[in-house]
């Protein structure tokens, strides 16, 4: 009888979801979410105000949920291109474990939940910034820029750069130059990070019809642009110390990390078009992840240590 009922349900267009909790968690893009949460936490802690621990926890949770919502909406819309790329073919939607409707509903519910939670319990400036970030990533980047222009990741990178500004706004109710500099570090980091990936995954992007820089402008032009961005990113990473927001300890770390980024980008610049191994590009991609984590970790440590020293002196 149960089998007959199942057959009737399928004939009527109904299907019992086979998705697991792990599949829905994968929709959140947990690795991306972890980086979002970390940079938002740094922005929150760096703000020169007394932070209510409960509100801080609520803010970080809401930002994490908002980041996950963006990931789910991205996977819903990009299921067609994810299916033909080796890097993304096993994601829940193209693999058939989660239906497009489930992914869309999941993303929309989490979007509303995250924005409303942040607005009602923290403040509406940070909630507005979170709502704009979700919209920018899901609509402006995913639905438009990604498939239309090789500058997709340059403009779209703004979405990933907002979390420290949201964290700052959550505890201050405002946006400052210091938080904007944190935004700029991520914004300028994004193109060389993703173009390094695009260099050794260009076949994937070509199959999917995504106009990433190597497929449109060629490898040589992409390598030059990666190096140019590295030259800009390195001094911007030092700006917090140069403007007096951090101690010389952070400044020294930022200088070393920036020089390392330029060195890896220089190696990429020297690659030849027929370099199939792509070792310099892979090395830069790996280092870029280390760079972003390390420079924000240094910022966090510097803020915490500096405040502890000031309190001890008082």
From TrEMBL:
PROSITE patterns: UBIA (PS00943). InterPro entries: Protohaem_IX_farnesylTrfase, UbiA_prenyltransferase, UbiA_prenylTrfase_CS, UbiA_sf. One of its GO terms (cellular component) is plasma membrane. Belongs to the UbiA prenyltransferase family. Protoheme IX farnesyltransferase subfamily. Keywords: Cell membrane, Heme biosynthesis, Membrane, Transferase, Transmembrane, Transmembrane helix. GO terms for biological process: heme O biosynthetic process. The chain crosses the membrane at residues 32-49, 55-77, 98-118, 124-145, 152-171, 177-200, 226-243, 249-266, 287-310. Carbon 2 of the heme B porphyrin ring is defined according to the Fischer nomenclature. It comes from the Bacteria. It is found in: Cell membrane. GO terms for molecular function: protoheme IX farnesyltransferase activity. It catalyses: heme b + (2E,6E)-farnesyl diphosphate + H2O = Fe(II)-heme o + diphosphate. This is Protoheme IX farnesyltransferase. Pfam families: UbiA. The keyword Oxidoreductase does not apply. Its main location: membrane. It is an enzyme of class 2 (transferase). It is a multi-pass membrane protein. Pathway: Porphyrin-containing compound metabolism; heme O biosynthesis; heme O from protoheme: step 1/1. Gene3D superfamilies: UbiA prenyltransferase. Coiled coil: none annotated. Converts heme B (protoheme IX) to heme O by substitution of the vinyl group on carbon 2 of heme B porphyrin ring with a hydroxyethyl farnesyl side group. Its EC number is 2.5.1.141. NCBIfam families: cyoE_ctaB, PRK04375.1-2.
């Amino acid at each position: 009888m149960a089998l007959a009922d199942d057959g009737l349900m399928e004939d009527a267009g109904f299907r019992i979801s086979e998705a697991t909790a792990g599949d829905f968690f994968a929709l959140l893009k947990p690795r991306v979410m972890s980086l979002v949460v970390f940079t938002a936490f740094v922005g929150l802690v760096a703000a020169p105000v007394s932070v209510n621990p409960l509100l801080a926890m609520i803010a970080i949770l809401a930002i994490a949920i908002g980041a996950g919502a963006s990931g789910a909406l991205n996977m819903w819309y990009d299921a067609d291109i994810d299916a033909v790329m080796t890097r993304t073919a096993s994601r829940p939607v193209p693999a058939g474990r989660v239906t497009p409707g489930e992914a869309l509903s999941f993303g929309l519910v989490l979007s509303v939940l995250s924005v409303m939670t942040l607005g009602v319990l923290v403040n509406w400036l940070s909630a507005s910034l979170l709502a704009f970030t979700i919209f920018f990533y899901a609509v402006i980047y995913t639905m438009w820029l990604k498939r239309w222009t090789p500058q997709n990741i340059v403009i779209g990178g703004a979405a990933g750069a907002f979390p420290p500004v949201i964290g700052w706004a959550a505890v201050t109710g405002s946006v400052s130059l210091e938080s904007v500099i944190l935004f700029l570090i991520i914004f300028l980091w994004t193109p060389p990070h993703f173009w390094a990936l695009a260099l050794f995954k260009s076949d994937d992007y070509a199959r999917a019809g995504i106009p990433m820089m190597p497929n449109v402008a060629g490898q040589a032009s992409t390598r030059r642009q990666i190096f140019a961005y590295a030259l800009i990113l390195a001094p911007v990473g030092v700006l917090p110390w140069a403007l007096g927001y951090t101690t010389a300890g952070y400044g020294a770390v930022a200088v070393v990390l920036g020089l390392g980024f330029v060195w890896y980008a220089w190696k990429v610049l020297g690659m030849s078009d027929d370099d199939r191994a792509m070792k310099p590009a892979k090395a830069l991609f790996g280092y870029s992840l280390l760079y972003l984590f390390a420079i924000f970790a240094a910022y966090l440590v510097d803020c915490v240590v500096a405040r502890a020293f000031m309190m001890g002196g008082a």
